[in-house]
Amino acid sequence: MTEFWLISAPGEQTCQETWEKLNEVTSREQLATNYKFNLPDLKVGTLDQLVSLSDELQRVDQFTEQVTRKLANYLADVLEDQRDKLGENLQVKLIN
């Protein structure tokens, strides 16, 4: 069975230097065959910013869900005599 490991190596001055050092050590000791796996830069500057955005997204998601539930309850109150039409009125319809 083939085994793949995804590792992170301590950075040298350049990415190429890090790659060469990793290859040198693993080849000499016959530990592994290495392949580059390029990762794109984060669109967010830092990990802290990414975590902050994730937290904000969770808050906005919860708020949106609460507002949607309240709207559904208000609509149910308005349609009290026509409860069978509640589901139909809660659906989002695409307008062309």
How many distinct domains?
A: 2
The SSE order reads HHH
Tell me the Rg in angstroms. Answer: 27 Å
* Count of discrete alpha- or pi-helical segments spanning 4 or more residues: 3
Would you identify the regions where 5 or more consecutive residues have pLDDT less than 50?
none
Q: Span from first to last CA?
A: 53 Å
Largest sheet: none
Give the fraction of residues assigned to helices: 40-55%
Strand share of the residues?
under 5%
- Average of the residue pLDDT scores: 85
Number of strands: 0
Structural commentary:
One of its GO terms (molecular function) is proton-transporting ATPase activity, rotational mechanism. Keywords: Hydrogen ion transport, Ion transport, Transport. The longest helix is centred in the middle third of the chain and has 32 residues, at 47-78. This protein starts with 14 loop residues before the first helix and ends in a 6-residue tail after the last helix. The mean pLDDT is 85. The protein is built from 3 helices and no strands. With 96 residues, it is mainly alpha-helical. Helices cover 53% and strands 0% of the residues. The chain folds into 2 domains: 8-39, no CATH class; 41-96.
Give a short synopsis of this structure.
By secondary structure, this protein is mostly helical.
Structural key phrases:
about 100 residues, mainly alpha, 2 domains, about 55% helix, about 0% strand, elongated, V-type proton ATPase subunit C, ion transport, ATPase_V1-cplx_csu, Vac_ATP_synth_c_sf, proton-transporting ATPase activity, rotational mechanism
